[in-house]
């Protein structure tokens, strides 16, 4: 079977992303990768690591073997110093992400793999940016769900990067139903789960303690879950978050839906941070990212662990093949 053609965006050029991509290029990958990056930045990263890197034209992605990487140039504006990001290069990072997204929508790529982006640097450059998930959703004009996954656990989020005091107001019946529908569809289409079983966490401690610790479970969560169960979804909850991740509770569960970022993600990262990936569900193409930041303190030292990027490429390739087999191109 022909390997899927994926766009690869290293992310912040002064972070560990370019080095991780060089390490990725040393193995036989399950996809034909095209890096959207500055060739000089990639060559400098390879030189720092002491690893071979032969850059090929984008059209020869399928021919690349270990030590080779196809590349479509996206030049940076200023010299890159490892560990020292420059806002002058933020535009190149965003351009690479959008170029990959455009290529996926146009059919030139079957998926997008992204490295870590430094949010503050992008904003310092005067570019409004809350994260790549939101950027890609706005570009595609669709609603999306963030899900992080490792080999043993999948955790999706109703809200993502919000101050805690704003979370309760954002957990509406509309937002919950939308998130569950996108998650349910993705589990079926992209992961081959014919009857997904989703564990839904409560918002409040002890899932509200029958209204004594908050009424969001009674007024918002339970009505939505009951309505979606009536449509055939297998939903458990709302569950107290402090016991929902016990192995016995998770047995047979295909995904956990958390109400907010730090309710679910600390558990997932503790259970397997190195192999964790970040998926954007609901896009018209697969997008998988590493589950870590730019690690500026590690950049240039040659010690950054590429496991999450390896896992991201493997996951994106698998989803691309699943969509190819079913003919699915949209969420």
Structural description of this entry:
The protein is of the alpha/beta class and 331 residues long. It has twelve helices and twelve strands. The chain has two domains: 1-143 and 282-331, Isopropylmalate Dehydrogenase (3-Layer(aba) Sandwich); 145-281, Isopropylmalate Dehydrogenase (3-Layer(aba) Sandwich). The protein has a twelve-stranded mixed beta sheet, with helices on both faces. The two termini are 24 Å apart. The model has no long low-confidence stretch (mean pLDDT 96).
Q: Helical amount among residues, as a percent range?
A: 25-40%
CATH class of the largest domain: Alpha Beta
Task: Supply the CATH superfamily name of the largest domain.
Answer: Isopropylmalate Dehydrogenase
Structure summary, number of beta strands: 12
Roughly what is the average pLDDT, rounded to an integer? 96
Strand content: 15-25%
| Domain module count | 2
How far apart are the first and last residues' alpha carbons, in Å? 24 Å
Task: Give the overall shape, derived from the CA principal axes.
Answer: globular
Strand order of the largest sheet: 3-4-2-1-5-12-11-6-7-10-8-9
Low-confidence stretches: none
Tally of helical runs: 12
| Helix vs. strand class | alpha/beta
Q: Sketch the topology as an H/E string, one letter per element.
A: EHEHEEHEHHEEHHEHEHHEHEEH
Q: Tell me the CATH architecture of the largest domain.
A: 3-Layer(aba) Sandwich
Strand count, sense and barrel status of the largest sheet are: 12 strands, mixed
The name of the CATH topology of the largest domain is Isopropylmalate Dehydrogenase
Which radius of gyration do the C-alpha atoms yield?
A: 20 Å
